Amino acid sequence: RARQAGRGTARFFSPQMEAEAKRQAALESGLRTAIARNELSVAYQPQVSLDSGNLLGMEALLRWHSPEFGEVAPAEFIPVAEEAGLIAAIGEWVLRTACSQTRRWLDLGQTALRVSVNLSPRQFHHADLVALVRQALADSGLPPAALELEITEGAVIDDIDNAVAVCRALKELGIKLSLDDFGTGYSSLSYISRFPFDKLKIDQSFIRDIVENPVNAAIATAAIVMARSLNLTVIAEGVETEAQARFLRARHCDAMQGYLYSRPLDADRFGRLLAGDRRLALAADEEAMPTLLL
Ligand code: C2E
Ligand code: MG
Ligand code: MG
Ligand code: MG
Question: Among 42, 64, 237, 248, which is best to mutate for testing ligand 1, by the most ligand atoms less than 8 A from CB?
Fold first, then answer.
């Protein structure tokens, strides 16, 4: 088709586009065997109370170490997995891994820990989602209240009635629901109030320059006020500086997640963090080095 369209669209065949298409195809074939070959892992990023500094839980973040491509970012491979019809299997693997790992940490005495797992739009619309979550809870023995699912607006905006029904069914399992990347989409009060969300996550794009940019400061402040008025807890993602944390604390944001406290950690490191050895957990890894040691 591109060829028929003539010279104007020749960029379809530019070397760069071709390289990109090749990479996508190679990523796709790599992803097909990634689970079986043990190339996937889950990293855990702490979520902490802005008031007390207490650890509230962690977000499970998928990692892929490909022998061919090295570390591939989820922002690149999750869309490939969605396109290739691989997201159901990969998503189930993440959910089960995060549930069993969290169960083991609970068994070590971490009674107040909650793990949140991301759902891509296609996973959210999968007919078996509720049964899958129920099964993952049953098989792992994780109490439902210790699981939270993160959903983006993109997953719910197209068919709100159906999305509300799915969310209600998920909530009936006893789990928590959060709205991820808040502020990047439609973000209307009237539709959000229809959903049984427990938590709002303010997108990191607003947090990044919250101290210098009055527009983003206003958006973040409005999001906090809105969340409170809807009785939702509110967490800021991508908090990297003490100044950002102070700003959020002053506006009664509940919690934060970001490099200021910790980067996402592999399960071993996260376990060490839980065991109370924050320095050991974080300092062994340059990458994981926080800006501040609390
Ligand atoms: P997200 O759910 O919004 O996750 C937060 C992202 O922000 C993570 O990127 C995390 O590493 C990054 N982050 C956290 N704190 C900071 C900070 O202080 N500064 C900066 N610059 N970044 C920070 P990551 O792990 O690369 O994941 C990117 C996205 O990929 C996630 O965004 C989520 O949409 C998706 N994703 C990750 N794991 C999964 C998964 O298991 N399933 C699905 N469906 N999507 C996933
Ligand atoms: Mg998320
Ligand atoms: Mg997010
Ligand atoms: Mg995001």
Answer: 237
